[in-house]
Amino acid sequence: MTNLISVRGLRVTGRRADGGDVPIVRDVSLEARQGEVLALVGESGSGKTTIALALMGHARAGCGISGGEIEVAGHRVDRLDAAGLRAFRGRTISYVAQNAGSAFNPALTLHRQVIEPALTHWVLPRREAERRAVELFRAMALPHPETIGARYPHQLSGGQLQRLMAAMALITEPEVVVFDEPTTALDVTTQIEVLEAFRAVLAHRGITGVYVTHDLAVVAQVADRAVVLRHGAVCESDATAMVLERPRTAYARQLVEACHLPVRPARPAAAPADGAAAEPVLTVSDVIVGYGRVDARGLPARRILDGIDLSVPQGRILGIIGESGCGKSTLARTIAGLQPPAAGTLRFRGDILAGGVGHRTPEQRRRLQIVAQNADLVLNPAWTVGAILERVLEFFHGLRGVAARAEALRLLDLVHLPHALFDRRPMELSGGQKQRVNFARALAARPDLVLCDEITAALDPVVAAAILELMSELQATLGLSCVFITHDLHALRAVCDRVAVLLGGHVVEQCEAASLMDGAHHPYTQLLVSSVPEMRAGWLDEVAARRRATTPGPVPPAADGGCPFTPRCGLRVEGVCDRVPPPIINSPDGQRIACHLPPDELPVLPRT
Amino acid sequence: MTRSLGPLILGRLAASAFSLAFVVVTIFAITAALPGDVADTLLGQSATPEAAASLRHAMALDQPAWLRFWHWAGDMLHADPGRSLLTGRPVAELVGPRLYNSLLLAGATAAVSVPLSLALGLACTMARGTVFDRAATVLMLGTVSVPVFLIATVAVFVFAVQFHLAPALADINAVHSPLQFVRVFLMPVATLSGATTAQMSRMIRACMIDVFSAPWIEMAVLKGVPPVRIVLFHALPNAIGPVVNAIALSLSSLLGGVVVVETVFSYPGMAGLMVDSVAARDVPVVQCCALIFCMVYLALTTLADVVAVASAPRGRDR
C-alpha cells in the first residue's frame, strides 16, 4: 500500500523583525498510509501545528515553507500555485481548528459556513449540500440535526461547535482531515463524545487523519502512528503503542511521565498544637452569588453559586473541580472579594470577611493572595521581575532598597528561579517561569491562604508537572493553605488534600483527594473521574460502550431546588431528583455527598 | 431567540434625546457667555452707553439669562428658531436655503467618498504589505496632513485658472443641468472628498485588518475560499459595525467643519453663515446652526450604533 501523505525534509522558517530567519521546522519527514490516523505530538513551540498547516500548503503570517517535498493524495503541495492551493484546500484535505468557538465566523449562520466548502469547490449543488450537512450532523450525534444549522456560533456549546466543524471538514468528502487539538478546549465529559464521533466517521469513510495534540492519552485512543516533535524536529516516530509503552528517547519518556503524575499520599490533618490552630483558615458558609432580578429576601433569580459550604483547614490544599460553567471561577472571585455574595458569609480565621475587597482590612488582603491563571495578563509587561516583587514587599511590609532586594531574591530562590531573572521583564520569560514569578508575587505578601485559579491550564504538561511539584513543596515547607481550582483531575490529585466537586453552582461532593478514584461517590463525580482518558488503547471503546448503556433519556432540566445532575444522571429517581434538594450524606471518613440515593446504591469506582 | 430591534432603537433614541437636551443647554450657555452683543455690532462707532442700553431693552437682551433661555427653548420646541437680531428676518428663512446647500454639498461628497473609501480600504486590506498598500498609505497620510485651504487653493489654481475646467466660484444659482451641477460641484466636492476619503479609508483598513487577524479568516483560507469572497462574505459582515461608525464620524464633520472650503469657493453654506453670525453676535442664528449641527451628528452616530448592533447576531441576542 502506498503512502497517502509523504513529507520529506520539510523546512519552515520564520522571518524576524530584523530580517533574520529563524527555523521553526527543520528537516521533518513523515508519512501516513491511506486510512491511517497519524498523531503529531509535542508541546507548544514544537512545530506540530506548523507542520499540519504545511500539509495544506499554508504558513502563518511571518512564516514560509522554505524547503522539502510535501505530497498529499498525489498532489505536490509545495509546487502548487495560489489557484491550485485553493482547489486543493477544503477539497482534498480539510482542517478542524483547535478552538471552534473562534474558528467559526460569528456573523454567519453555521449552516452557510458548513456547506461553503461544497459550494466553493462545486462538489455539490446547494440542495444536495444541505442534505449532506444534515446527514453529517446526525452522524456527529448533534441535537436537532435538521435545524441546528440555522443557529449562530455563539448560541452553541464548544463541544457542539467542534462537531459542527468536523462536519464542515467532511462535507466535500476529502481524503485527508487535519485535526488541530480539537478537544483541548473541551471538558473531559464532552471530549469523550467528540472523540468518539470523530473516530467513527474517520473509520467509516476510510479517511486519513492527521491529529495534532499534546495529550498522549488522546493519542492512545485515536492514532495508529505517532510522531513526537520537539523544537521543530522529529524526536521519535513509531506505532502509537510503541511510543507510549516503550519510548526510546529521553524526551518522549519525559512526556509519557508527565501524564502519570504521582498521586499525593494522604496526609493526616495538621495536629492542633493548641486550640486555635484547629480553626480553619477559610470558611465559606451558605454563599449565594448570582445576577438578575432580586427577590424579597435579596436573593438573585439566576444563581451562579447556590448554597456553597466549604472550609480550608490550616496547612491543607482544597481542590475545587468542575466543568466549564460550573461556577468555580466565580467562587474564586467571591473568595478574593471581586464578586460579593448575595447571601452567606465568608470567615477568615474566624473573623467575618467582607464581601467586597474594598471593605476588607489591609491585613486581610495581605493574608489572602490570588495566583491567576494567565500570568501574561497579571504581570505588568513594562516592569522587571524584581520591580514586580519589590512593589508587593514595599506595599505590605514597607521594605525598600537593599532589604527589599534581598527578600525578592529569596523569593526567587523559593520558586527555583535563577537570580539572573531579577532584571528581566515578563516578556523575556517562558510560560513556566512567568507562572513561577506569579507565584512569587503572591508569596511576597506572606499570605496565609493562596487562591490558585487554573494555574496550570495554559502550560504544557511537563512544565505544569514542575509547577505542581513546586506547589506541593511550598505547601510542605511554608505550611501554606491553598484553594486549588482546576478542571484537570491529574493536577488535582497531584497536589490536593481534599476535593470539592462543583456542578451547576452546587457542591455535589466533598471527599479526601486520596479516595477520589475509588469507593462510593456521587454519580457526577463518577462520571467526571471515569471520563479522564487513560493512556491505553481501547479505553475509549470501553467507556463509550458503558456510557451508551447508562445514558438516560432526555428530561427537562431540573426545576429550582432539584439536583443539578438530574438531566444527565443514569440513576435518577423521577419526581424526586428533579424537585427536591438532595440531602447530604455524611460518612465517617469525612466524605459529604449530596444525593437522594441511599449510600449503598451510590456508584462505586474501581480501584486503579 | 432573536429579539426585535424596536426596544433597542427606542433606547438609543431616548439616549439621543437626553444628549440633545444637554446640547441645548450648552449651546445657550456658550452663546450667553460670548463677550459683546448685537447691540454693539449694530451701533458700531456711534455707540453710547445709553443708546446701547435702550437697544438692548428693545431686543429683550437685558432680561436675565434663565428667562431668555426659557423663551428660546420654548420656541425651539415649537420649531420656531425666532428672528435674526441683525436683519429682523425669521431665522428659518435665513438658515433654510443654507441648510439645503450644505446638505447638497455633503450629500455629493458622501456619494463620492463613501464608495471610494470602501473600495480603497478593502483593496488595501487585501493587498496589505504590498507596494500598492504602502503607496496608498503614503498618499492618504499626505492628503490628511495637507491643510484643506491649500488643497482648495491649488485646485482653483490648476482647474480654474490654468485649464478652465471649472469655475473658480461655486455659483449654485447657475445649476440648471446635470453637467452644470458637475462643473459647479467638481472642485468643492473633490477638495472635501480628498480629506474625507483618506481618513475614512484609513479607518476602514484598520477595522478590516483587525477582523482579518481572526482565526475564522484562516479557517476560510483553509477551506479554499477565494480572497474576494473572504473579504466580502466573511470579513465585511463582521466589520460593518466599526466601519459604519468610522463613516458616520467622518460624514458628520462634513456639514459644519467646511468653513474653509465654503470660503474659498464662495459657497453659500451653513458653516459660513454660522461664522458670520458669531462675528455679528446674531445669537438666534448661531444657536439654530449649532443645534442643527449637533442634531445631524447625533442622528448619524445613533444610526451607526443601530446598524452596528443590528449587523451582529451576538448583539441582537443580548
UniProtKB/TrEMBL annotation, chain A:
Lineage: superkingdom: Bacteria
One cellular component (GO) term of this entry: plasma membrane
Residue ranges of every copy of the ABC transporter domain listed in the record: 7-256, 282-529
Keyword vocabulary terms for this entry: ATP-binding, Cell inner membrane, Cell membrane, Membrane, Nucleotide-binding, Translocase, Transport
Alphabetized InterPro entries for the sequence: AAA+_ATPase (IPR003593), ABC_Ni/Peptide_Import (IPR050388), ABC_transporter-like_ATP-bd (IPR003439), ABC_transporter-like_CS (IPR017871), Oligopep_ABC_C (IPR013563), P-loop_NTPase (IPR027417)
Database matches in SUPFAM superfamilies: P-loop containing nucleoside triphosphate hydrolases
Recorded family membership: Belongs to the ABC transporter superfamily.
NCBIfam families in alphabetical order: oligo_HPY
Record's protein name: ABC transporter ATP-binding protein
Originating organism: Gluconacetobacter azotocaptans
From TrEMBL, chain B:
Domain of life: Bacteria
Membrane topology of this protein: Multi-pass membrane protein
Main location: membrane
Pfam annotation, one family: BPD_transp_1
Domain ABC transmembrane type-1: 99-304
Gene3D superfamilies in UniProt: MetI-like
GO term, biological process aspect, one: transmembrane transport
Residues that span the membrane, as ranges: 12-34, 103-126, 138-161, 181-198, 243-264, 284-310
PANTHER family: DIPEPTIDE TRANSPORT SYSTEM PERMEASE PROTEIN DPPB-RELATED, PEPTIDE ABC TRANSPORTER PERMEASE PROTEIN
Name of the protein: ABC transporter permease
